[in-house]
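SEQUENCE AND FOLD
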Amino acid sequence: MNLLTVLLQAAPAGGGGMDYSFWIMMIAVFGIMYFFMIRPQNKKQKEIQKFRNSLEVGQKVITAGGIHGKIKDIKDSTILLEIADNVKINIDKSSVFAAAPDKA
């Protein structure tokens, strides 16, 4: 006998009590997913967006690809990043990942 036939035989004839417990379980699972997965991710995205909006010329940053550089110019959606002496690249503003630590 497979598991499905065992479960079907064990189900109550009315099935009325099972509906409430099923919906309570589904709501509980969604609540757990919201508080442990969705909410922290939204919070982190807001922090990243706030950081990207506060970028300034002269600030040292790290891109998502791991490139370290210094911001030379900021436009609407792009940044001119100096990665070495007289070596500048244009990158998308959304690819800036974090502020680079100042080296002593």
